Structure formats: C-alpha cells, structure tokens
Amino acid sequence: MDNATRLHYLQAMGIDVWIPKVASNAVDLPSPEADQADKSGVLIEQFVPTPNDNWETLQAEVSVCTRCALCEARTQTVFGAGNKNADWMIVGEAPGQHEDEQGLPFVGNAGLLLTEMLRAMGLNREDVFISNIVKCRPPNDRDPEPAESKSCNDYLQRQCALLKPKIILAVGRIAAQTLLKIDAPLTQLRGKVHTLNNTPVIVVYHPAYLLRTPSEKRNAWLDLQLAMQTHKT
Ligand code: URA
User: Fold this and answer.
1) What CATH number does the domain containing 45 carry?
2) Is there an atom of ligand 1 within 6 Å of 105 CB?
3) What is residue 3's predicted lDDT score, i.e. its pLDDT?
4) Which residue, by CA, sits nearest to atom 7 of ligand 1?
C-alpha cells in the first residue's frame, strides 16, 4: 500500500494525521510531480531526490564533512547504520561518546534500550536503518544547535530519499522538532501520526530519557504500539 493510501486509512480510523505546513523558504520542491497539496492548499513536503545519488557517495561526503564546527572535535562521523532497504527509519538526535568512538549510532546505554524498544515491536536492528539529525558528536553532548542541524539536514534528507522508508520514528524531542519543523513540546508531539514526504512519522521518547524516567515506559509502549499499527495500515 502506498503512503498516501495508508494515511487515508489512518484518518478514516480516527487517528490524527498531522501534516506540517511548509514555510515558503523551507524547501526547494524538485518537480511538478512532487508538488502535492491537500484540499486546503497546504503543501506536503517532499524529500528532495538528488540525481545519481547513492549510499557510497553520500557516506564518503559525510565522512569528510566540514560544514559546521562539530567537525572540529569529532573522532569520526556517525553516518548511520542498518538495512538500506528497511521500511523503518529511526532518527535520533546526535552521536554521543560511544557513537563517536565507534562510528555507529546508538551503541551506548541508550542504544541498548533502543534495541529493546525495537525488539518489543518485533524488530531487530538489522530490520531498520538508524541515523541521527547531526552526524558528529556535539561537545559535552549538548543539544545540536539549529545551525548545526540545518547544515546536516541535506544528509538526512538524502538518506531518506535513498531509503524511502515506509515509516519514520523520531526519537526524542530534538529529532521530532527538527524533522517536523514544529516547536512544540514532546508531550504534544507524541500520540499522533505526523507526516513528512507522505511518510508517517511517529514521535517516541528518547531511550536516554526513559533510562532516567522509567515511569514513562508505559507511555513509551503506547507510542511503539501506534508505530506498529501505523506501519501495518
Ligand atoms: N543518542 C542519539 O540520539 N543518537 C545516538 O546515536 C546515540 C545516542
């Protein structure tokens, strides 16, 4: 089932589907075919496919990136990892110390819990592609700054365009706000089906937050159930 049909069914089931309004300067729409508008004239954002792009070229570019100051302190870039034919794209915030050391996403304690969250949905890490909003570790693990996320956005968009995921899990507030270009608290973003490029986006708690706040695990499970239901639809 294509994403537009899936979204139609979700709406029919009474599940909120949120489509972000695209600011007039936010995207360069690639082609008339990509120009889609819903009945109210709200543009549906598209991933911009770069002609002749491929995973190898993209990974090579990322590995030597100097677009922002995060390159200065990194050990290496963290491109992302997993199945390049996956239905599921998992988007976190930024590499931490372990990720910076190993060049792989979500390999620390939060990563272990993410693996468990995936397992609860019947998925292995090999079934998904995992990436981050920024590909380099921010100093002292601070939040990425908007300019840093913006510098890295093209890489994430190209990853999405190459992967063509059926569903995106935005892991934590920073990933959700950056992907959806919505400045709302996580509590307002959870529990809804958002869309990006006609692709459903489910916002879930960051596993690092769940490690600090285990009482939220029940709500976290509701988010994962919504993701599973959305993927099945
Ligand atoms: N937290 C993230 O958001 N991403 C990682 O890769 C690791 C921890």
Assistant:
1) 3.40.470.10
2) yes
3) 59
4) 106
The answer to whether residue 27 is domain-embedded is: no
Q: Render pLDDT for 181-224 as a digit per residue (tens, 0 to 9).
A: 999 999 999 999 999 999 999 999 999 999 999 999 999 999 99
Rounded to the nearest whole angstrom, what is the distance from the C-alpha of residue 109 to the centroid of ligand 1? Answer: 10
Burial category of 59 from C-beta neighbours within 10 Å (exposed 0-12, middle 13-18, buried 19 and up): middle
Structural domain containing residue 107 = 3-17+40-232
Q: Is 110 in the pocket of ligand 1 (CB under 6 A)?
A: yes
Does residue 228 sit within a domain?
Answer: yes
Neighbour-count burial for 145-163, b at 16+ CB within 10 Å, e otherwise: eeebbebbeebbbbbbbbb
pLDDT interval class at 4 (50, 70, 90) = low
User: Cα torsion for 39, 41, 45, 46, to the nearest 10°?
Assistant: 80
- On whether residue 34 sits in a domain, the answer given is no
* Mean pLDDT along residues 86-101: 98
- Flag whether 33 is in a domain: no
Q: Which atom of ligand 1 is nearest to the CA of 110?
A: 8
Provide the number of structural domains found in the chain.
1
206 C-alpha to ligand 1 centroid (Å): 9
What's the CA dihedral at 158, 161, 163, 169 to 10 degrees? 90
Q: Does residue 33 surpass a pLDDT of 50?
A: no
